[in-house]
Amino acid sequence: MKRLILSAILTLSFFSYTAVAQKKATNEEVKVTIDLNQVKNDKVMVTVTPPKFTSNEVVFHIPKTVPGTYSTDNYGKLVDDFKAFDGNGKEIKTTKTDDNSWKITNSKSLSKITYWVNDTYDSEKGRGFGKEDIFSPAGSNILEGENFMLNTHCFVGYFDAKTEINYNLTVLHPATLYGATSLVDTNKSDTVDNFVATRYFEITDNPIMYSKPDYETFMVDGMEILLSVYSPSGMHSAKSIMPDLEKTMRAQKAFLGPINNNKRYTVLLYLSDMQKSDAKGFGALEHHTSTTVVFPEMMPAAALAEQMKDVVSHEFFHIVTPLSIHSKEIQFFDYNNPKMSKHLWMYEGVTEYFANLFQVNQGLIDAEEFYQRMTGKIENAATLNDTMPFTEMSANVLVEPYKDQYLNVYEKGALIGMCIDIIIREKSNGERGILDLMKKLSKEYGTERPFDDEELFAKITSLTYPEVGEFLNTYVAGKTPINYDVFFAKMGVNKSKVQTPINPFLKDQSTPYITVNPTTKEILVIPSTDLNDFMTNLGLKGGDVILSINDKKYNLDNIYDMIMESQNWKVDDAITVTISRDGKEQVIKGKVKLSMEDSEGYNFTDTSKERLNTAWLKG
Fold first, then answer.
1. What is the pTM for the complete model shown?
2. Quick one: 402 and 477 in the same domain?
């Protein structure tokens, strides 16, 4: 999972072990029907046909926590009017025992259960990632006749001791809506979809998004990639987004090599209408063969493409860990009494590291950009608790004070992955790195064979070097902060002053060069101020009204778009600015010139380590 935080500019698993796995009973089945044709008070009805029970009581649950969210969300709170019936249609007594559980008496005669389910997107109070909200990519949407985001854990529950039996899910839907998912639809009807799964996890691990058909597919090394997009106003489309996504995923597959055998991978992109009550938690949630992504629709195309590259690449790399390499806490997940694994440093940290390393490896970014990203992670990690053992934080991530440190999995977690990579590269003379380690672990374990939490460090050490084991025990299980300078130096990279571009419309985070006329909504260059290199190079003056840039018109309504677009400008890019000066319109053509500021970062300076550095970033 990756969360993003939306500020002035957009800059932004696990599971649990049951002591005895349930014995598979192939003749048992739970049938579930979700009816999207009948929406009442923004809710849809779910009907559950259970297997036969021999006990007098049974408990039905909706998840409290789901894989990848690291939070207690109580999805049972979305359920209303829960009822149980016998074969004659007579109602059976039920008792709600907590937010997510219902005890059913006389369960031997239980024939069906019905309940109504509300959605989450239009009820988010904060930004979608606050304590009061379910993270949007893990939530749901019910917009009659237009969009249904079915994260199935919001709708489908389970009976005690019956999570390992077959599930048969039927979705009734309008013929105008297409259900995008990695599940295989066994019904050829335009209004009925049927999906069969071997266990409850398989159902909840496959979200489905119903919307008017807007999807594209492409093949990458035998894997079919499906991209489905919901854009309320039609501002974005699967066709416009697909080329950048395809380029990214081809690069990822080239980086990974033969480590995964998925035949299909689905990206569900929901774009939120920020003018209405809609999703506000931006980011993504991973699954074995798909990912759900939520972003604001107002994002310009270039900014959306850049965010999709970073976020979707992170989620796709989860096919390595925890999806192919994971502990028993993950394999046997207890949705209502979760116990977390100690190894978030690997599940999220190594995944985030790969999401950055593959980009420099495949030429999507240069080495300087990669060093800058790692520098940013060092700075972000320094704002969190640098002495809290990562294994301790991971195992207790659902409770305070550990949950407040969760975001460090993307910062220090990625840096842990980088340091391990560097150690392996140094000890193997550049021949191997952390990707080689993950391939070996994947072969050792795989999707169906979990490891014991306590055995992982020893296994990694046996597959690599004693120095890797020492690092894990000292810096991951221990309280010692990491001296990143030491590890960078092993690859010939040393601390130095680096220049970074300043946004052309901002002097700093609180001082803009532009303002807005509240009456006309026009964007003006602030008068009586010393302008930056970008503006003086184009001959802009204080008081100029910016009408359009590169033929796109701007005013108060889309000034955010202008700022976001400018984040992607490079020095010497051609640019055309239409302005109004003293009441006369004129067109200025030129090239982008950006002011730079000095900051502390890292650069390659030790040429004696050139071969190692090349193996690290390009090997």
1. 0.83
2. yes
